[in-house]
């Protein structure tokens, strides 16, 4: 029912989604999040703050990682769907960035935010595993961005080395410069192939954590 309700609209661009894990005091250590979701009278009451969330300022629906059973640590984390008009849900600051400005990033605040228990994604306690799967695949996309930026840097470096003249000839003729450019290309090629391998594993529904 959740897939039927949200996925077609996301694909058509009718709604924008966001995925909220990171908190002011919990970044890489995802298990240490403090956002909670307490079940009460058929609802979840969500409290906490998320930061550095992609699409936060414009999201229509958010998947929030919250602890439904704090005593269990990572195994007490659950994923809960929160729509933008849910009572107690507010969008905080929009963060300024040096680059990647096509993606808006910001803060999400939950103050006694009330959503139906039917908004639980999957089962209670599976949120951390769901989060790790999302991160695993997301990192492949980030790797692709990194490879593309590195490739652009290499191309700019080659162009520059052919244009800059020293001692009467382009610096691309110097062995030291050639060695640096060759090393850059070798590293980029290796990174690209590793990224392709990880993407291929994902396409075949296989784990790619090592890659």
UniProtKB/TrEMBL annotation:
- Identify the residues that the record assigns to the Acyl-CoA oxidase/dehydrogenase middle domain, covering every copy: 18-113
For this chain, one GO molecular function annotation is: acyl-CoA dehydrogenase activity
Against PROSITE patterns, the record matches this protein to: ACYL_COA_DH_1 (PS00072)
What protein family does this chain belong to? Belongs to the acyl-CoA dehydrogenase family.
As cofactor, the record names:
FAD
Read off the Pfam families from this record.
Acyl-CoA_dh_1, Acyl-CoA_dh_M
Name of the protein this chain belongs to: Acyl-CoA dehydrogenase
Keyword Membrane attached: no
Q: Which residues form the Acyl-CoA dehydrogenase/oxidase C-terminal domain?
A: 127-208
- Does the keyword section mention 4Fe-4S? no
Q: Recite the UniProt keywords alphabetically.
A: FAD, Flavoprotein, Oxidoreductase
């Amino acid at each position: 029912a959740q897939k039927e309700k949200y996925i077609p609209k996301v694909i058509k661009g009718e709604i924008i989604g966001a995925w909220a894990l990171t908190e002011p005091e919990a970044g890489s250590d995802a298990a240490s999040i403090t956002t909670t979701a307490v079940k009460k009278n058929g609802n979840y009451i969500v409290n906490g703050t998320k930061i550095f969330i992609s699409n936060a300022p414009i999201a229509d629906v958010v998947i929030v990682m919250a602890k439904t059973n704090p005593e269990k640590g990572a195994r007490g984390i659950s994923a809960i769907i929160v729509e933008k008009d849910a009572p107690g849900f507010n969008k905080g600051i929009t963060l300024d960035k040096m680059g990647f400005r096509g993606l808006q990033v910001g803060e999400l605040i939950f103050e006694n935010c009330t959503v139906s228990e039917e908004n639980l994604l999957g089962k209670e306690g599976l949120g951390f595993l769901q989060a790790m799967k999302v991160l695993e695949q997301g990192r492949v996309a980030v790797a692709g961005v990194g490879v593309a930026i590195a490739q652009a840097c290499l191309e700019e470096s080659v162009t520059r080395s052919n244009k800059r003249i020293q001692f009467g000839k382009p610096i691309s003729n110097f062995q030291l410069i050639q060695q640096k450019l060759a090393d850059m290309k070798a590293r980029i090629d290796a990174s690209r192939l590793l990224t392709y391998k990880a993407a291929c594993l994902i396409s075949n529904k296989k784990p790619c954590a090592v890659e």
